[in-house]
Amino acid sequence: MTGNGYETIIGLEVHVELATASKMFCGCQTTFGGEPNTRTCPVCLGEPGSLPVANRKAIEYTMMIGLALGCEIAPHSLFHRKNYFYPDMPKNYQISQYDLPLCVAGALDVEVEGTSRRIGITRVHLEEDTGKSFHVGATGRIADSRYSLVDYNRAGIPLVEVVSEPDMRSSAEAQRYVSELRGILEALGVSDVRMEEGSLRCDANVSLRRPGEGFGVKVEIKNLNSIRSVGRALNYEVERQRKALDAGDPLVQETRHFDESTGVTNTLRSKEEAFDYRYFPEPDLVPIEPEAAWIEQIRGGLPELPGTRRARLAADHGLTTEQAAIVGASSTSLRYFEDLIAAGISPRDAAVWMAGELARALNTAGLGLEESRIAPVALAGLIRLVADGTINLNSAKKVFQDAFETGADPSALVAERGLAQVSDEGPIKAAIADVLAGNAAEVERFRAGEEKVLGFLMGQTMKALKGQGKPDVVQRLLREALAG
Q1: pLDDT given for residue 466 in this prediction
Q2: Are the C-beta atoms of 324 and 348 separated by less than 8 Å?
Q3: Domain assignment present for 261
Q4: DSSP for 187-221?
Q5: Considering the domain boundaries, does residue 2 fall inside one?
Q6: DSSP 287
Q7: Which of 370, 29, 84, 32 is nearest to 200 (CA)?
């Protein structure tokens, strides 16, 4: 819900490049990068006389996604030609699915601020990706470019589109939806889901309405290449539409581009309707009619999905909901957690550090866990130093931050900086004697029954020891000295 009595309506279209070895309708490689236009052939370039052949693995991966989202697998689905003219489309049409998609009627549950929401999945369909345009100019936008180049290496890569119902009501819900879907895709192993490389891309449809009214004018937002961008773009667009409605200005159905640098959306083109694409069945491809046995084989081979993983971690290790969400966010985070346990760290301590210091450092730096400079074995060494009393928690947190930024070994930093806590009674007794001699009035107050004064004397002693006294030893010796 947004302000001034408007309700926000959001639906997402998430495009997923599948991690198959070859393209959707030909044998060209799908690996990212490479010299432009070197991974192409007559089929993916649409040369006359070339014939497509559907990639069985891509169909199987699409059914895996559909089953993981609770979809029905259609007994009969078709490929269509989606006709439009743009330089990145070498055939001047895209082979896609129209009214008979492979997977329909699913749902994805997301949790936002402790509340669970079920987002409907309209369809999961299979198509081929387009080429990639490069607009040469100061901004990289076509309007400001001097000329454009096209790389067709990406053209023809298997692309799955997951279309949600317009069930999301805030940018936070949309971000959580994309994050949860990304986790499912990563767990299935059907895509590397690298948004920065374009293997996971998102378009958002957003409108505002008064509660109880029909849907408002829908605007589609393109170029959402990170979960953060989804939130920024939706927040901007909702506010733009609200101001227009309050001012009585008409909204138009259109496609808008999100500018990462400015954080605003700009008009790209008028929104197309289905009839603009002149869909008709692809004459060179047979229908997809998966046998029930094949579907059940795929269903039986589905891995543990993020929701189930979080519930298991919470139940098995007594983790909080937040801790289980972070530890079970991906196969990478789960391996990190398991490596900490294998290094002798308790599940509770491992989760506390992963959900605390490690998560904060990664978020601040804008990095993924796989980019962390602190390996599980290094973090385990630091956690052990805290557990056995060698270093206090505050010092450990400072060491962790320095190690995260520099890549240095945390245990080595503790040794280099002399941060190990003093447990030798000689230096501690000497420090206590000096503190008591310099605070005679406080000593008398404690001996008169003011127990709270102990905290002050403890603080002064720790200060004298430069924070390196082992607290339980310091407190025991301090009490003994005061009793004496």
Answers
A1: 67
A2: no
A3: yes
A4: HHTS----GGGTSEEEEEEEEEE-TTS-----EEE
A5: no
A6: P
A7: 32
